[in-house]
Amino acid sequence: MRRDSESIDDSIRLIDAVRAAAERRVPLRIHGGDSKASLGRPVEGEALDMRSHSGVVTYDPTELVITVRAGTPVAQLNAVLDEAGQMLPCEPPDFGGAATVGGAVASGLSGPRRPWVGALRDFVLGCRLITSEGKYVRFGGEVMKNVAGYDLSRLMAGSFGCLGVLAEVSLKVLPKPRAHHSLRIGMSAADALERIVEWRRAGLPVSGACHLGDALHVRLEGGTASVQSAAQRIGGDEIDPAFWIALRERRLPFFNGPECLWRLSVPNGVGVEALPGDVALDWGGAQRWLKSNAPASSIRRIAESAGGHATCFTPAAGVEPFHPLPAPLLRFHKQLKQKLDPHGIFNPGRMYAEL
Q1: CB of 78 within 8 A of CB of 173?
Q2: Which of 228, 294, 298, 333 matches a 20 to 30 Å C-alpha distance to 145?
């Protein structure tokens, strides 16, 4: 079992900061590398920088589990796993080395493998959390079976730090695939969605499917024989696998430009909708990136009609970043916030003004 000799446990400082904020009823702006500062509403409060609380706590490659502190850079986590021939399959973005593990979990962002391996929250086994009372508590564990009662550790995924200070997280990891192959095939978006469904039914080892411009980009991963067979069946031109990193990190030319960037999350069986702007399909069609300056209400109406929701990924005047919640769901969110953060000190308003 590996322990990182360079890891830094800064939990005492963090606990003291939370207790002091709770006593004074002062809001905290919890952050790591601020790589996702533009995603969500701005938070007014004292900064609580998590980057000093970092490093690998334990890592047992034979058990496929790693526990790291929240301030650990995602790039460092990936490097440690790569040395052991393993990976975090949901491939959260590292945004040039700035993203931290705590921020990755808090935002819940997943990469191109999401539809085939699961979301980031599916790989969270447990966590240590600093509560609004300044208590250092553990939820979950380090095995998949160790879940009893409410699974609060996975509840942290996508919470944007609004429920507590995520200090430590245990993650399920997997071996890296033995073979991989990336292809580009010229076709329309509508044809691409049909082909993806066909390949899924045929059990082809697809782990990435993105339609961009006039072509479908496909990633195959798995055993050598199965990948070679699938590549021959699919056809197309081989491309640099770095395409998937650029897509994950939003570094492709598509993501440049003055327009607002929207992400529409819809069922992957939904056909190609007429969207007011340039569109790229990821996650086999379940995630649709849209560059547009159309009214937010129009974009969200389209997303809702397709059974999904829309999130604005770039700051825009007068635009709420997250899709409005139905009244019953908003009421539940308020109750949860009140229960876990009764003083309202953790990233208040980051997701919604009422939270």
Answers
A1: no
A2: 333
- Three-class SS of residue 60? strand
Whether the CB-CB separation of 353 and 42 falls below 8 Å is answered with no
Q: Is 288 within 8 Å of 266 (Cβ atoms)?
A: yes
Instruction: Find the helix or strand (DSSP H, E) in which 246 lies.
Output: helix 242-248
CATH label, 177-256, candidates 3.90.930, 3.30.300, 1.20.58, 3.30.70: 3.30.70
Task: Give the rounded distance of the alpha carbon of 210 from its chain centre.
Answer: 17
CATH topology (fold) of 11-175:
3.30.465
Asked whether 140 and 147 are in contact (CB, 8 A), the reply is: yes
Where exactly are the structural domains of the chain? 11-175, 177-256, 257-343
**SS3 label, residue 269:** coil
Helix (H) or strand (E) holding 225: helix 224-234
Closest C-alpha to 147, from 163, 124, 174, 165: 124
What would the pLDDT profile of 243-287 be if each residue is shown by its tens digit?
Answer: 999 999 999 999 998 999 999 999 877 776 678 999 999 999 999
H or E stretch including 101?
helix 101-107
**What is the C-alpha to C-alpha distance for residues 239 and 232, in angstroms, rounded to an integer?**
15
Flag residues of the chain having pLDDT under 50: 144-149
> In 3-state terms, what secondary structure has residue 290?
strand
Q: What is the pLDDT of residues 199-233, one digit of tens each?
A: 999 999 999 999 999 999 999 999 999 999 999 99
Contact call for residues 265 and 287 (beta carbons, < 8 A) = yes
